Amino acid sequence: FHSGEREEKCIIEDVPSDTLVIGNYKVQRWDIHKQDFLESAPGLGMFVTVTTPSAEVLLSKLYGPQGTFSFTSYLSGEHVICLQSNSTRFVAFAGSKLRIHLDIRVGEHFLDESVVQAKDKVNEVNFRLEHLIEEINHISKEQNYEREREEKFRKTSEETNSNILWWAIVQTLILISIGIWQIKSLRDFFISKKLV
Questions:
Q1: Residues 38 and 134 in one domain
Q2: How far apart are the C-alpha atoms of 194 and 157, rounded to whole Å?
Q3: Contact between 40 and 66 (Cβ < 8 Å)
Q4: Residues 101 and 152 grouped into a single domain
Q5: How many domains does the chain have?
Q6: H-helix or E-strand spanning residue 121
Q7: CA 183 → CA 99, 186, 195, distances in Å?
Q8: How confident is the model at residue 110 (pLDDT cuts 50, 70, 90)?
Q9: CA-wise closest residue to 16 among 66, 53, 60
Q10: 110, 136, 171 - which closes a domain
C-alpha cells in the first residue's frame, strides 16, 4: 500500500488468543528524479504499534526501513497494527510518497531448515511431528475462537428477533386501540348530531 511520509496507516487483524503473529515489511521511497520508487529507503524507519481489542498497547517499537516484528496475542479479537515512518521533516515539507510491502502471518510456525537437512531421520521426523502438533493446536484454537464469535452473533440475532417481535406486538396494540378510539369518537359524534 502507499502512504504519505508522516501518515499513519493501520490494519485490523482478527486474531485468536495465544497466537503468534509475524509481520514482515519493506519501505520504498518515491524518487522525484527517476519517477519511480527506490529499492529501499535509507535513513527511514518504521514505528510499529500493535493495540489489543481492549485498547492496550501490546507492541510499540521503532524498526529500520525493512524488518520483521512479532507478537503473541493473549486476548482474542481485532488487533490494530499501525505503521508510521519516523521522518523528522515538517508535515508541510514531508510530501514524499512511500510504498510499504507488508506480509502478516497469523499462527504460522516455520520449519528450521538446519533440522530439516539433518542426516538423522528420526530427529527430522520428530521435528516434523512436533510442527504438525503445533499446527493442529493452532487450528483447534481458531475453531474455538470462531465458535465463540458464532455464539455471540447467534445471541445478538436472537435478541434482535425478540425485540422485533415485541415491537410488532406493541404496534399492533397501538393500532387497535387507536381504531377503537376513532370508532367510539365517530359514533359519539353521530349520536350528538342526531344522525343515527
A1: no
A2: 55
A3: yes
A4: no
A5: 2
A6: helix 121-192
A7: 72, 5, 15
A8: low
A9: 53
A10: 110
Tracing cell 386501540 back to the chain, one arrives at: 177
Which domain does 156 fall in, by range? Answer: 128-160
CATH code of residue 83 = 2.60.120.680
Residue with cell 359514533: 187
Residue 29 dihedral angles phi and psi, to the nearest 5°: -100, 145
CA atoms within 13 A on the CB side of 95: 3
State the DSSP code for 111: P
Cβ atoms of residues 86 and 44 within 8 Å: yes
**pTM for the whole structure:** 0.55
Taking residues 148-170, what's their average pLDDT? Answer: 94
33/90 same-domain check: yes
Whether the per-residue pLDDT at 92 is higher than 50: the answer is no
Grid cell of 17 as nine digits: 488468543
Write out the three cell numbers for 188.
359519539
